[in-house]
Amino acid sequence: MSAGNKRGAFIVMEGLDRSGKSTQAARLLERLQRADARVKLLKFPDRTTGIGITIDSYLRSESELDDRAIHLLFSANRWELASSIEESLRAGSTVLCDRYAFSGIAFSAAKGLPYEWCRAPDISLPAPDVTIFLDITPEKAKQRGGYGEERYEKEEMQRMVREVFQRIGSETSREQRWVVVDAGQDIDLVTEDIWRIVEPLVSGVLGPVTRLWE
Length: 214
Ligand code: Z5A
Ligand code: MG
Description:
Elements: E1 10-15, H1 21-34, E2 39-43, H2 50-59, H3 67-90, E3 94-98, H4 101-110, H5 115-119, E4 130-135, H6 138-143, H7 155-171, E5 177-182, H8 187-198
Parallel strand pairs: 1-3, 1-4, 2-3, 4-5
C-alpha cells in the first residue's frame, strides 16, 4: 500500500459451479502474496460459523429448510463477516472473496423466489470494487468432471442461475464494476485476464468503502 489515504481493494469472484472460482482465487492470492501485498481470502458460504454449519448441512441435503429461510441464512452468513471485511479494507488489506451476495440472488431467484425479495437482505453490505464473473456454459462446466453431489449441481438449475447472473451484471452500476471473463479458456489465460483487471487495484483504492445497491 503506497499513498496515505488509500484503502485495500475488495475483489469478488463469481460464476457457475466448476467455472474455476476457487482455482483462480488461490492463484490470485499467491500472486498478490508474492508481490508482498497484504491480502485476505474469504469464501461464501463460510461453512465454519454457526450459521455456516446449518448452511453446509442444507447443501449436503442432510437437512431441509424453507427456501426463504435458507436464503436469509446465506445473507446472514455475509453480514456476520461484513464488519471484519470493512476493517480489513480500511487497514489496507486487499480482500478477495470467492462468491458473495450475487450468488445469493442468483441461486434463490433461479429457484423461483422474486428477484427484488432476494436482493433486499444484502442491500448495504460492503460493495466490491470489482466483481469478476467467470462465465462458462453449463455444458462446458459439466465436462470438468461433472457436477458433484450437492443440492444445486444440476445442469438445468445452472442454466437458470447463469441467466440471473447476467441480469445482475446488466444492472450493476459503473462504480460497482462487473467484469466478465471467459472461464472456458485455458486455465492460464483466465489467470492472465484476471490479473489485468486486478493489477491496477493492488496499490489500493481511493475513497470510502461503498455499499451494495445504495
Ligand atoms: N450459494 C447460494 O445458494 N447462496 C449464496 O448466497 C451463496 C452460495 C454464497 C456452494 O458453493 C453452493 O452454495 C453453490 C451456490 C450456493 N451451489 N451450487 N451449486 P461453493 O462455492 O461451496 O461450491 P462450488 O462453487 O460448488 O463450486 P466449485 O465446485 O467450488 O466451483 P469453482 O470454485 O468455480 O471451480 P474450481 O474448484 O476452481 O474448479 C473446478 C474444476 O475445474 C477443478 O478440477 C479445476 O482444476 C478445473 N478447472 C478450473 N479452471 C479450469 C479451466 N480454465 N480449464 C479446465 N479446467 C479447469
Ligand atoms: Mg469453489
